[in-house]
Amino acid sequence: MNTLNRLSQPEIETPQTNALLGIPEYQDRQALNIELNADVFEMLTAPAQVSHLVLLSDRQYVDQERQLITKLCDLYGVTPPHNHTNIFSVDLGVFNLRWERHTEYSIYMVYRNGPFDVPFAQTVISLVPDEWLASLPGELLSATHITLDDRSNAKRSLTELASLFITDTIIGSKVAAGSASVWSDNQIHADGFGRILIHDETLRNRQAGRLVQRLLEIETYRLLAMLPVPMIRQMIPQLAHFDQRLAALTASNENQISIEDEQQLLEGLTKLASEIEQISAQTSHRLNSSRVYYDIVKQRIAELREERIEGLQMLQEFIEQHLSSAMGTCELVHSKLETLSLRVARASALLRTRVDVSMEAQIRDLLKSMDRRAHMQLRLQETVEGLSVVVLSYYLLGIVGYGLKAGKAAGMDVNVDLITGLAIPVVVLGVFFVVRGLRRLVGKTQQHK
Predict the structure, then answer these.
(1) Which of 205-214, 429-438, 439-448 bottoms out in mean pLDDT, i.e. has the lowest?
(2) Which of 109, 143, 346, 438 is most enclosed, with most CB atoms within 10 A?
(3) Chain-centroid distance, C-alpha 437
(4) How crowded is the C-beta side of 31, counted as CA atoms within 13 Å?
């Protein structure tokens, strides 16, 4: 098979980006077209053997993966991949390799077309250098052997199939409108790989490649869909504890008698809401990804167009029986998180309303108390003002008296007592009007401010 690098081989000529009618071309148009038309499967001819690895790894390891692919190509004397490619397929002579880099995992598919004696006895992965395999970054999620049996061979009996798998619980069906038969046991064997046996009946080359690709995608995506299940099962008791805490906080809301108790209850609800949102943030991405992967699995199974083999469970039935229950648990936890978050938000809103009403009542009482105090202060001020008129009048009359006495001592014929007595109403009224005028002036100044 010729060396292929469908996304970035230098021999792929990039057309001029501004040659069409003088209209500027979108910068990624060519890349998108290449991506859309890139083959997602390999050309296979029965008999053939496939070994498939799926490794979970962060995106940061993509350069290391390209370096390892380059190292393997150099070992077999073939052209290595481009520095920016994410899909690379190459014929290394003794076997073919396909590498795909995805967002959170990488795929390594090793295959060869040619006869074999016994399925799964001598696998194609054994041809890959052990040191190179051991240096691959990431954690192994899925490992699968697929054997494509030639149509010239007789279809294997259930007894022969049982000897190829480790259990008698074999699932199988006719696929691709009866063009092939597929069997598996969905178990991990002693070598760490799962096994799928395909018997070619009327498959074309491209059809065989598509069938293998669909089966491998089902194996990959069903495990990716299952990734959150262990985490979800650990969360179920914690969510039940959250539910109990929320019920206790809601019940205690009826027994709050002071604003301090209500604020303390509000702090408890806020803390619970924070814990729920933290778990939701930690799981939302994984649960959403799981939902997408599950939809892909169902789509790929539908594309198989299965037909029943008498006495065997079909792949669709197996997936619905096992994977759907796990996905139902994930959906249940996701729904429970949303429900808890909504209930806490409602309880917090009700309690905040109650606290606001209580605080408004306290503010109203405080304003009433301040109003009473201001009224009392005004009365006191009026009393003080009245006393101040008397005091000022008294001092002014004293000054008048001293003045008259000084005049009499100087020889003036004045009646000190008489004139002082006559001055009393004049002085008192004068002081009264002056004080009232000053008070009005101060009041107008405060209003303007």
Answers:
(1) 439-448
(2) 109
(3) 72
(4) 7
Cis peptide before 47 (omega within 30 of 0): yes
Q: Which residue has the tokens 């009245």?
A: 386
| Tokens 């604020």, located at residue | 263
Cα–Cα separations (whole angstroms), residue 313 to 54, 182, 187, 316, 317 = 26, 11, 15, 8, 6
- Rounded to 5°, the CA angle 157-163-164 comes to 90
197 bridge partner residues: 147, 183
Length of the chain: 449
H-only helix segments in 101-203: 130-134, 158-164
Taking the C-alpha atoms of residue 265 and residue 253, their distance in angstroms, rounded to an integer, is: 7
Residue 295 has what pLDDT? 93
Question: How much is the pTM?
Answer: 0.72
Instruction: Say if residues 370 and 272 touch (Cβ distance below 8 Å).
Output: no
Q: What is the largest CA-CA distance in the chain?
A: 159
HSE on the CB side for 59, CA within 13 Å? 4
- The C-alpha atoms of residue 159 and residue 173 are separated, in whole angstroms, by 16
Give residue-wise pLDDT tens across range 239-275.
888 888 888 877 776 666 666 777 778 788 888 888 8
**Phi, psi for residue 54 in degrees, rounded to 5:** -125, 120
53, 223 in Cβ contact below 8 A?
A: no
| pLDDT at residue 3, as a whole number | 38
